[in-house]
Amino acid sequence: ANFAGSADYIPASASTTFTIGAAPTVTHVTEAGGIYTGAPIPAAGYVAGIGGASIATPVFTYYLASDTKYAHPLSGAPSDVGSYRLKAAFAGNPNYLPSSTTGTFAIGKGSAVIYAADDGGAYTGHPIPATGYVADAGGTSIAKPVFTYYLSSDTKYAHPLSSVPSAPGNYNYKASFAGNANYLSTFTTGYFTISKAPTVIHAADDGGVYNGKPYPATGYVASVVTGAKIATPVFTYYLAGDTSYSHPLSGAPSSPGSYLFKAIFAGNAYYLATATTGTITIRPKSK
């Protein structure tokens, strides 16, 4: 510092040293933890300097919640469900002092959703199970649900069936996921119908030459779905002129002439009713 002097004072000067110290900082953590996604969930924060302005991003290290001495850092931001600790540190620089802070956070179990369906179908004699999968929030399959089945009247799902249904009827199902270390449990329900199978009758009567004996028609009832033979139809016989099938004969015809037959299957608990018709000719015996 210098003084040039004046009319009353002689010039003078002096010198000294001084220091500008590094400014203090505060490390803030603004975000930590979340819901499980399978990916690491890093913390977020900033280092505040003069006036609270952000001057840097802290370095984060992570620990299990049980590591209260911060002695065993994890290799990176955690991804699994659980409780954790973190340390956010700023090493300082020529203008700002170091600072750090610690905190706790948790990663919660993720939500799951079940996609399931049972389209039912016609009776085949085989069980008709529901299908589906358990998905995470992104739609990726993470597990298979467990299915239980109920009569449709069991709206409280109180009486599960012993197995996947196969008989015609109306049913409910419940698809359940018990959850695991990373996902919450969930369930969904649905409805499906197993219908009676359609049927077809294969029947014929080739007739023949009069021999004094009846000429009965023959045939069988088959499932349209599987082709399996399931029953023998009931045959009734008519004169060829009885096209309305209103006057059945007492039995299979034996006399020469032209006839009609009707083959009927009345249906049952598993198969729909059906019918078919045909013709018969019994030719006179040659002399």
How are the SSEs placed, and which strands pair?
Elements: E1 2-3, E2 12-13, E3 26-31, E4 34-35, E5 44-48, E6 54-56, E7 59-64, E8 82-90, E9 99-108, E10 113-117, E11 121-122, E12 131-135, E13 141-143, E14 146-151, E15 169-177, E16 186-195, E17 199-204, E18 208-209, E19 218-223, E20 229-231, E21 234-239, E22 257-265, E23 274-283
Parallel strand pairs: 4-9, 11-16, 18-23
Antiparallel strand pairs: 1-2, 3-5, 5-6, 7-8, 8-9, 10-12, 12-13, 14-15, 15-16, 17-19, 19-20, 21-22, 22-23
Structural category is mainly beta
Count of beta strands: 23
What are the low-pLDDT stretches, counting only 5+ consecutive residues below 50? Answer: none
Question: What's the order of the H and E elements?
Answer: EEEEEEEEEEEEEEEEEEEEEEE
Share of helix, binned: under 10%
Largest sheet: spatial strand order: 4-9-8-7
Rough outline = rod-shaped
Integer-rounded radius of gyration: 45 Å
Mean pLDDT: 96
Word description of this protein:
With 287 residues, the protein is mainly β. Helix content is 0%, strand content 44%. The protein is built from no helices and 23 strands. The strands form seven sheets. Strands 4-9-8-7 form a four-stranded mixed beta sheet, with no helix packed on it. It has a four-stranded mixed beta sheet with strand order 11-16-15-14, with no helix packed on it. Strands 18-23-22-21 form a four-stranded mixed beta sheet, with no helix packed on it.
